[in-house]
Amino acid sequence: MSETDNARPGFWKRLSQGLTRTASNLTTGITDLFTKKKLDAATLEDLEDILIRADLGVQTAENISAVVGKGRYEKDIDPEEVRALIAGEIEKTLAPVAVPLVFDSAHKPFVLLMVGVNGSGKTTTIGKVASKLRAEGKKVVLAAADTFRAAAIEQLKVWADRTGAAIVAREQGSDAAGVAFDAYAKAKAEGADVLIVDTAGRLQNRTELMAELEKVVRVLKKQEPAAPHAVVLVLDATVGQNALVQVEAFKRVAGVTGLVMTKLDGTARGGILVAIAAKHGLPVHLVGVGEGIDDLQPFAARDFARAIVGLE
């Protein structure tokens, strides 16, 4: 997926602003902890607590504390040096998962299944992805298989009109798997490059909706054994630790292959992406900071790591 050179600096500036609360909390905690104080075991434990409170995860917090402590016991250490060390370790965790969303032209249509809970920004993300694909000259079909909410169907129709993508939709309450079936048939018959399937915003504890999602996957596989070729989970950064629960549930039911994280412009919880990367190792394709088309960009590990700790 391409990105414009002029959009990127503004985008990452907005991301840094969105992560200001996380960065501010970390910076204050680190400054208070390391100013005029020699490094000892108690200090490192306090550092772990600060990192865990920033949603970075227990394992990451332990790893970072070990790196900070290495060779520095009973020595003065500058808070700026600590922040740089933390950013470096976060980048090491994130770099392997910073993977672009690639639409393999060997599959025609390439089937992208989008999953996630209500309010995560899933349908908007589909619209933005469709817009970028259309700008690249790709033929796109959208499947409005979120038949649970009338608003989701209408929202997807708006995006189809805006981007020039084709759409397959039925009325609210229709069989979601049936919509996915018809959409694949249309995409195949018309030689579309990409089929993007929207699905109902399932809470992971709604077993009947999760069963419906499994059915959508089964129906697609009957038409094309390799489909869906990508299953992308859209996560709302503001939910913090609950995002880990969502990843586990959707991996189990739909075989998630990658992630998009939205709403990083209004959250103190961006650190959860680090915890997810450390635990699951799933590719992070895109991150979003707002409603505009250019507010969704490929994930860059170094930029994110430095923004988390407030470094330019």
From TrEMBL:
Residue ranges annotated as transmembrane are none
Q: Which Gene3D superfamilies match?
A: P-loop containing nucleotide triphosphate hydrolases (3.40.50.300), Signal recognition particle SRP54, nucleotide-binding domain (1.20.120.140)
Q: Which reaction does it catalyse?
A: GTP + H2O = GDP + phosphate + H(+)
The answer to whether UniProt assigns keyword Nucleus to this entry is no
Which taxonomic lineage is given here?
Bacteria, Pseudomonadati, Pseudomonadota, Alphaproteobacteria, Hyphomicrobiales
Question: Which family does the record claim for this protein?
Answer: Belongs to the GTP-binding SRP family. FtsY subfamily.
Residue positions binding GTP: 116-123, 198-202, 262-265
- Descriptive protein name: Signal recognition particle receptor FtsY
Bilayer topology reads:
Peripheral membrane protein
Provenance organism: Ancylobacter crimeensis
